[in-house]
Amino acid sequence: MNLTNKTDILTAIREDDWMMHLLKTAKQLNLPDWWICAGFVRSKIWDIQHHFKLRTPLADIDVIYFDEQNINKSVEKEWEENLREITPGFPWSVKNQARMHIANDSAPYTSSTDAMSKFPETATALGVKLDKENNLILSAPHGVDDVVNLTVKPTGYFAASEARMKIYRGRVKKKNWKQIWSGLDIH
């Protein structure tokens, strides 16, 4: 099975009990504008596109949210601890995107999806969550064509700055994705 569009991606995630369990776990925190993003979604897609039988291990499970009322970094650690208590043994990472513009030296973000749009790669700028009725929702500010076609390229935000492009190139080199997913076309 190859994925070609958003519907295919949502179906693949919906059929993955492990991913759905983690989404239900994150939903329990009731965070504003929350998503599980980046490698959680991207790796699932690349694994399917490469016909892997086993899931590629994740370095972390990125939960993002947007709360302008409390941008204290210590709150994020409390949320991570809550997730570890609910579902121990997972590498949870929680970040409030209302403060991440400071760490990334950029203009303030307006939402979690706005923050995702400024991730380094288009194929990583993805998030999933469950709404109040437990419908699975996918956010893909740059679409899904690059990720399903195994294309790795910088987002427009990163491409617009040589300093950010240096970060992008260093990140791609460090991640060494092509060693895992040989079919990637890295730009």
Q: Rounded to an integer, what's the Rg over CA atoms?
A: 16 Å
Contiguous uncertain segments of 5+ residues? none
Give the mean pLDDT.
96
Tally of structural domains: 1
Count of distinct strands = 7
Broad shape: globular
- Helix- and strand-based class? alpha/beta
Supply the CATH class. Answer: Alpha Beta
Task: List the strand order in the largest sheet.
Answer: 3-2-1-4-5
Strand content: 5-15%
CATH homologous superfamily caption: Beta Polymerase, domain 2
Give me the CATH fold name: Beta Polymerase, domain 2
Please tell me about this protein's structure:
44% of the residues lie in helices and 13% in strands. The protein has one domain: Beta Polymerase, domain 2, CATH 3.30.460.10. Strands 3-2-1-4-5 form a five-stranded mixed beta sheet. Strands 6-7 form a two-stranded parallel ribbon. It is globular, with a radius of gyration of 16 Å. The two termini are 26 Å apart. The longest helix has 14 residues, at 73-86. Helix 4 (73-86) links the parallel strand 2 and strand 3. It contains ten helices and seven strands. The chain has helices at 6-14, 17-27, 39-49, 73-86, 97-103, 112-116, 145-148, 156-159, 162-175, 177-180; strands spanning 35-37, 61-65, 92-96, 127-130, 136-139, 151-152, 185-186. It is an alpha/beta fold and 187 residues long.
